[in-house]
Structure to design on (62 residues):
């Protein structure tokens, strides 16, 4: 847990993971975009192959 909140664990495909070594900035962009489409208002907080940890920010004030 980060900030005493439970995190959701998820995974993503090899196409994005392959960018981690070859283009780290594109890896970050693709990872954020991937989860923004599938989990709106969830934030990627940690990445450790093969798990991506997400924080639920749906109840935060906009």
């Amino acid at each position: 847990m980060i900030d005493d909140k439970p995190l959701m664990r998820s995974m993503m495909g090899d196409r994005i993971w392959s960018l981690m070594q070859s283009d780290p900035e594109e890896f970050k962009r693709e990872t954020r975009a991937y989860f923004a489409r599938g989990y709106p208002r969830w934030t990627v907080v940690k990445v450790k192959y093969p798990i991506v940890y997400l924080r639920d920010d749906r109840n935060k004030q906009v």
Remarks:
- The two ends are 24 Å apart (CA to CA).
